[in-house]
Amino acid sequence: MCHDTDCGCGKHDLISAEGRGLNHGDCCCATGYGRRRFFTREEAASELEEYLNSLRLEIKGVEERIAELKKEL
User: Fold this and answer.
1) Residues 6 or more apart from 10 whose CB is under 8 A from it?
2) Alpha carbon distances (Å) from 54 to 9, 11, 37, 40, 47
3) Do the Cβ atoms of 12 and 30 come closer than 8 Å?
4) What one-character DSSP code corresponds to residue 60?
5) Which of 21, 25, 28, 54 could link 9 by a cystine bridge, Cβ 3.0 to 4.6 Å?
């Protein structure tokens, strides 16, 4: 939940000069009032399911890239 990209700041996809992703100290969504810090079990489970799906897609992309590279050999 802490990496919500719906805040509209546009900074979540940026990479810092050191090659690391931005942390919430660099993002407008971490400042001010109203930012939630505690989530329900259902919200946490949903977030983990989304993360798992993202990991599965990443694996698929890596497998496709490996297959492409092997064809070039």
Assistant:
1) none
2) 22, 20, 23, 21, 11
3) no
4) H
5) 28
